[in-house]
């Protein structure tokens, strides 16, 4: 069949993990009431933030690298159809098979059918945001196939019947004691005397996974980068479990969002400097695995690449919002965001939490399904400063707020304000009348409905005793 960029306007409802069960404000209230969660988040984000800042400071050309990464991503988005067709051609020439998935349902069907063809009923997985996005584990479970997460943090989440709460560290909301309890309760064959020492916890996971690595013939992975020039796929990770998934099985299935393509091999020179420093605070990724199609006698002998749209084409069509597709999943914006640090990732209701999730998820699903997420920000701009590819997240947030549905009363209030500010005489009268606001109670809590809802989460500034116009007239 001919290649094309995705047909569906948005990611479909009822499948995957892009929509929450409740709006962000309601979910955030629950998270804010959990002191242990807030403590875990504060410790983890502060540690990562400090480590990242130190290694970034070592590079005198960090800002030039950011500009280069941004330019490469802009070029990629402008040439996406051609680059994807080139990637397909190179992967096919190297012995791989490329599949095009318009949405989550099609991607799940393709992967499930490929596994069924092997006759296997168990797969090992390397951490993949794309497969979490489409709900692949649930689809495999319904088909009688057992997916085993091999990334340590993802394994913790899976055994705990939990959901990821961070792009880079999915179990960031758990502390050592909680992880120990999960392992004792859910991990087969674990030593009852297991302590919460990190080395002991890692050793327990290693023993649990070793047999699985050696006996499972099918693996599913994501991809950090897909190089159009050569058909090479790349995965970067910190533990080595990913490399076991990518080399030991007979069949490897990779699910990659279409925005992960890069034009040329040399482009990795930029991204492999940006990604580790911005994400884990390392100078380079401990494990960078690359493969091109199939090599006889070495590694998987069957390779399938599933190119996933699932709403990305709709994002690409938005001139302001499309730069959200530049994201390299480093999580730097989460680690500096004051909102994320207090609420954690589950409050966002999507596999993509934090500032980048607040702009990406609403675009993938349609703003109506995630209307509260663009407001999950103080617009402080810390995310923009931290982003290694210079995504202007605050500007996209404001753009999406303008698209979000607004209550009729809010529309009326804003229309009245605009009408008043456009008429100098009326505005002067309004300024004088504003002095009466002092009678409305501290912080505006005495405002009548529906205006009291505005003051519930904002300080109503006290009007000055003298307006600027009055001050100017008197001098």
From TrEMBL:
PANTHER family from the UniProt entry: LACTATE UTILIZATION PROTEIN B (PTHR47153:SF2)
Keywords of this entry: 4Fe-4S, Electron transport, Iron, Iron-sulfur, Metal-binding, Repeat, Transport
Span of domain LUD: 84-294
Record-given protein name: LutB/LldF family L-lactate oxidation iron-sulfur protein
Family matches, as PROSITE patterns: 4FE4S_FER_1 (PS00198)
Region annotation Disordered: where it falls in the sequence: 444-475
Stretches assigned to the Lactate utilization protein B C-terminal domain: 402-474
Biased amino acid composition, Basic and acidic residues: 466-475
Organism superkingdom: Bacteria
Start and end residues of each 4Fe-4S ferredoxin-type domain: 324-391
